[in-house]
Design brief:
With 558 residues, this protein is mainly β. It has four domains: 98 residues, Sandwich (Immunoglobulin-like), CATH 2.60.40.10; 142 residues, Jelly Rolls (Sandwich), CATH 2.60.120.380; 143 residues, Jelly Rolls (Sandwich); 120 residues, Immunoglobulin-like (Sandwich). The protein is built from four helices and 38 strands. The strands form nine sheets. Strands 9-11-18-13-16 form a five-stranded mixed beta sheet, with no helix packed on it. The relative contact order is 0.13.
Length: 558
């Protein structure tokens, strides 16, 4: 039955390649204004509309067609389609990032980000700005420029004056974001900025000396690589700032937003996702943690609140220990008692500075001083068998012996300690529940008679054994969905995996099969359907713990 559902119906509804939006330039505009931009991508030449997901923003298509490279400009290896769009924003729109998608006869595209600001936005002047002599002159701050690194090795210079002792903030946002990961620089635009002064030398009176540089404030796996720099100028004078790609890339998709502001201004960051984060150092360990977990397990929310203690003396479970590793080599200890066997969970939060700068090690010691469990995970990887070691934000362990135990918190090394090394360690009974939920699809385009599968994966945390209910709301007319299964090849278990059950949840998945009936009405614009996930315990569905809105279009077959 599975083969018939997925393979046969899919073969009857083969679709042309989905439209894919790659970049938009410029991608920044002032609220209450109008600006024009170009969207590059695949299968966009017949784009007819722009669909904005939320906010008082209006985008309209002004023209579309194959890409045209100006005379003298290097041609890209792959020619894309270009759509000219008009962007109009209301005066009351809130500054920030807004998502939009292109709509074509083949369906709706992936989402790109539009940046709206409350400050005036200037375009990089025509021509090249690769030398101090051709630098873009900045008259005053704050100021925002939109520019582009149009070919490999290009850079843009900006010139400005600064007073002695003056502090300024510089930030460059990438229009082709690069995620901090191996190979990330090759797949995106990782901007860097450098500040120079024209101090000269014996050999070259016009030589520029670099006095400050930033690629990104902190390179961490999974984070964006936008550049951010705060600098205080030691003396008054003329200075130059250079924007370039960190690894020398460039091209028609390498647009950027450059912002210069007086004073020390916090970095502009994307709004945090509302998704549940089970094993992140940044998630909040509140006093209501047990009830939050009970809701995700389909149980009554009648758990006792978690008390907060300083990391010294004695405490009773459940508890949250707070402290600061203010000096190198500092360690904090607190004791608790259990009367009998108890399954516990240890979660770590870093409200201030977190990994990789502050790496909190948490150990539980028995009455003899022997280590019972720690958040330090060691095991051999599945690929090479090499020994891997790392710290985790959550550890579970079954305490089997009654008695006194000690929780010890310290920094990974004995060399670091400062006021920003704040921690919150929550020690509590285990509460079976559903952890992180991942719904893979971003959008769906199908023709009548077509079908597509969408994977929904979830983590069973702390021995959660209940069922998981997955449903879809607001389906377009003529579209139905069924539970399905797909094939997943067996994976060789890692050699000597260590105590993975303490540090890694059990992950499972289900599959949704969307199908479109023959004769279903075609759609001019996408309709947003909603995938929801709920626990199912004791024959009763729990509250919705995860949901994702997915735009869908029923389109004509090619």
């Amino acid at each position: 039955m599975r083969t018939v559902l997925v393979v046969c119906t899919f073969a009857g509804g083969l679709m042309a390649a989905d439209p894919r939006a790659v970049s938009m330039h410029p991608f920044t505009g002032q609220r209450g204004g109008v600006f024009h931009a170009a969207v590059r991508g695949n299968n966009l030449k017949d784009a007819k509309a722009v669909w904005v997901e939320s906010g008082p923003v209006r985008m309209t298509v002004e023209g579309a067609g194959p890409e045209v490279i100006p005379e003298g400009m290097p041609k890209p290896r792959v020619m894309l389609d270009v759509v000219q769009v008009r962007v109009e924003t209301a005066a009351n729109v809130k500054p920030g990032r807004y998502s939009f998608r292109m709509v074509t006869p083949s369906g709706v595209s992936n989402a790109l980000a539009l940046q709206i600001t409350d400050a005036p936005v200037l375009a990089e002047p025509e021509g090249q700005h690769e030398t101090p002599e051709t630098a873009v002159a900045i008259v005053e701050a704050p100021v925002i420029y939109t520019g582009k690194i149009g070919w490999r090795g290009e850079s843009d210079y900006y010139a400005f004056d600064a007073k002695a002792g003056e502090t300024m903030t510089f930030q460059v946002l990438s229009g082709l974001p690069s995620i901090g990961a191996p190979g990330g620089n090759a797949n995106g635009f990782d901007p860097s900025i450098a500040i120079y002064e024209a101090s000269g030398s014996w050999f070259d009176a016009k030589r520029l000396n670099r006095i400050a540089f930033n690629d990104e404030p902190l390179w961490v796996l999974g984070r964006l690589t936008d550049a951010y720099l705060v600098h205080t100028f030691a003396k008054a004078g003329r200075y130059y700032l250079r924007v370039e790609a960190f690894s020398g890339q460039g091209g028609q998709d390498y647009g950027y937003q450059f912002k210069m502001m007086p004073g020390n201004v916090p970095q502009d960051l994307p709004a945090g996702k509302a998704d549940w984060e089970e094993r992140s150092y940044t998630r909040a360990l509140r006093a209501t943690r047990l009830n939050e977990l009970a809701a995700r397990g389909g149980k009554k929310q009648d758990q006792k609140p978690v008390e907060t203690y300083r990391a010294m003396g004695k405490f009773a479970l459940p508890a949250t220990l707070e402290g600061v590793i203010a000096a190198p080599g500092e360690a904090h200890r607190a004791q608790f008692h259990v009367d009998g066997p108890q399954d516990i969970a240890i979660e770590v939060e870093t409200p201030g500075i977190g990994p990789p700068l502050f790496n909190p090690v948490v150990r539980v010691l028995d009455a003899k001083g022997d280590e019972v469990v720690t958040n330090f995970f060691a095991g051999r990887g599945a690929c090479t068998g090499a020994l891997n070691k790392g710290l985790t934000a959550k550890t579970i362990y079954p305490l089997r012996n009654p008695g006194d135990y000690t929780v010890e918190v310290r920094e990974l090394t004995a060399d670091n300690g400062e006021a920003g090394f704040r921690y919150r360690v929550q020690v509590r009974p285990q509460v079976p529940h559903l952890g992180a939920v991942r719904i893979e699809e971003d959008h769906i385009n199908l023709g009548p008679g077509g079908a597509k599968t969408v994977r929904v994966s979830f983590d069973r945390e702390e021995n959660y054994r209940g069922a998981v209910a997955v449903a879809v709301e607001n389906l377009p007319e003529g579209v139905s969905v069924l539970a399905a299964a797909d094939y997943e090849p067996d994976k060789d278990p890692p050699m000597n995996p260590g105590k993975r059950e303490r540090y890694v949840p059990r992950t499972e998945r289900t599959v949704l099969a969307f199908s479109v009936a023959e004769g279903a009405p075609l759609m001019e614009l996408p309709k947003v359907m909603r995938v929801i996930v709920r626990p199912l315990v004791d024959g009763k569905p729990g509250v919705t713990i995860a949901s994702k809105q997915i735009p869908m279009m029923v389109v004509a077959k090619p």
